[in-house]
Design goal:
Helix content is 50%, strand content 8%. With 506 residues, the chain is of the alpha+beta class.
């Protein structure tokens, strides 16, 4: 019996040893992928690859990729690993232009959510949907974001900004001051009211009694453990996100039926009235009527996915840009006075008009500098649709390889920006704007898949900031600790952006 037991132990030990050795060589082989291709790769953790700090919550994904970008010296590109999966990180602006613009036919799709999940609303918005659906949707929706449509939307921005102005007045004491004021949440309310009209064709007042729409619109941003894992998987392991989606109720969560009902009520009312406004809802009606003639499927939830992604992307990007611009101006009162003077001078000349806002050049410079230091979506991604030879090399990127640009690294690269961590809006002045190397400043992306709402986003951000700065001086609050959430993929303050406000004399 002792002999049998010893034999079993030897066999178990042998199997265990074989398994450990096999795993060791498997991991070693997987983590030698870039070396075998002749591409430099930073040192890696045996389990986490280059993503240990992000997976353990020590650094945000954007900041980690930016760190890897900065540490790569003069390399035009590097290979990195997320766990054991290889990803390609581009650092050279000429190669960025080549891949994202000139050779777009090889990189038409995003890697993000490249596998459709059961949540069509979350996975088939224009941001993530694949070709040929993307090209069709982009062609149809682009006119709704033209300069002409911007001017029509401007009146709604003014209406919403006026509601914000009244809301702010109601929160100040007799001396015209308020401390530790949550600028981020005020900005969110303002942007939601603009986006509600653009995306859903409805007018709301989040500063008044429209609390339900406001609260429902915040549903995708509610923090949750499953939600965090799902977003990480969406970006870096799309196949895994399909599995996780069984434990998640979709991007809209408990508000899915609310937005389905709202969207189709508006669509049906618009169709029955016959009144056309030339906005995205009219375009989606056209798509609804045309989809039977297409060679691909556009389900009802894919139609709904378009206003959902406009809403999600617009709310977060514009509100955080407003809040962080105010935070940076609070750090430098001389610069803040310069921006306010620009705002007030244009208002005196043109009033709160489209022309007046467009004339606020220094304000726009400040917004651009905020987007440089705090790009709301710090990662630009594509996936190779077929094997691709990197220009000027013999290196082949294999079909299915994910390609990234890390904006936190690119926008702070000392090769392209002097004193890159300094907040300096003059970089974007008429005198210095020409110094910016093409494809080194791309907060809205680059190429055919650049953000469709860039102009609307910049305009609503400028209107929101001008509304606040014309009336108030902002200062850093000693009661608040400023910081960005290291567990978020997108830029997100740990606890809002809370500033001290003081009314300025007219």
């Amino acid at each position: 019996m002792f002999i049998v037991s010893s034999s079993i132990c030897v066999n178990v030990f042998g199997v265990f040893t074989f398994t450990v050795i096999s795993v060791f060589f498997y991991i070693r082989y997987k983590l030698s992928y870039w070396k075998r291709k002749g591409i430099r790769s930073p040192s890696t953790h045996w389990l986490f690859g280059n993503f240990e700090d992000a997976i353990l919550g020590r650094l945000s994904v954007g900041n980690l990729l930016g760190k890897l970008h900065k540490e790569a010296g003069d390399e035009p590109f590097i290979g990195i690993y997320i766990m054991h999966k290889p990803f390609f990180l581009i650092r050279d602006p000429e190669l960025i232009k080549q891949v994202f613009v000139k050779d777009f036919q090889f990189f038409q799709n995003r890697y993000f959510a490249s596998e459709k999940s059961k949540d069509l609303i979350g996975s088939t918005g224009i941001f993530s949907i694949n070709n040929p659906e993307w090209k069709y949707l982009r062609m149809k929706l682009s006119p709704a974001f033209s300069s002409g449509k911007q001017k029509k939307l401007f009146s709604l921005m003014i209406e919403s900004s006026e509601n914000m102005r009244k809301f702010l007045r109601g929160h100040f004491n007799e001396s015209g001051e308020v401390q530790n004021f949550d600028t981020k949440m005020v900005s969110v309310r303002y942007v939601i009211d603009v986006i509600s009209s653009l995306a859903y064709g409805v007018r709301t007042n989040s500063f008044g009694n429209d609390e339900e729409f406001f609260n429902r619109s915040r549903e995708p941003f509610k923090p949750s453990f499953i939600g965090t894992i799902f977003r990480f998987a969406n970006f870096f392991f799309p196949l895994l996100s399909n599995f996780i989606s069984f434990f998640k109720s979709g991007i809209l969560g408990n508000s899915t039926n609310y937005f389905r009902t709202l969207f189709w009520d508006v669509m049906n009312q618009r169709e029955n009235s016959g009144i056309k406004r030339g906005d995205s809802i009219d375009t989606l009606l056209e798509i609804k009527h045309e989809r039977d003639q297409l060679d691909f499927d556009i389900p009802d939830d894919t139609l709904l996915a378009q206003p959902v992604i406009f809403s999600i992307a617009g709310i977060e990007s514009s509100s955080i840009t407003i809040a962080l611009t105010l935070m940076e101006l609070a750090k430098n009162l001389d610069l803040q006075h310069k921006v306010r003077k620009n705002v007030q001078e244009e208002l005196e000349k043109h009033g709160f008009s489209y022309e007046g806002i467009q004339g606020m050049k220094i304000l726009y410079q400040a917004i651009s500098e905020t987007l440089r230091l705090y790009p709301p979506a710090p990662i630009i991604d594509r996936v190779a649709l077929q094997d691709y030879k990197i220009p000027g090399t013999n290196i082949i990127l294999e079909k299915g390889t994910a390609v990234y640009v890390a904006l936190n690294g690119l926008h702070e690269d000392t090769r392209f920006y002097k004193d890159p961590l300094k907040y300096d809006p003059d970089r974007f002045s008429a005198e210095r704007n020409g110094d910016i190397v093409p494809c080194t400043y791309i907060p809205f992306g680059v190429g055919p898949r650049a953000c469709i709402g860039e102009r609307v986003g910049m305009l609503q951000t400028a209107v929101g900031l001008a509304t606040i700065l014309q009336d108030y001086e902002v200062a850093l609050s000693p009661l608040y600790k400023y910081g960005l959430n290291p567990r978020k993929i997108f830029i997100q303050p740990t606890d809002g952006v809370k500033l001290d406000f003081k009314q300025v004399s007219s």
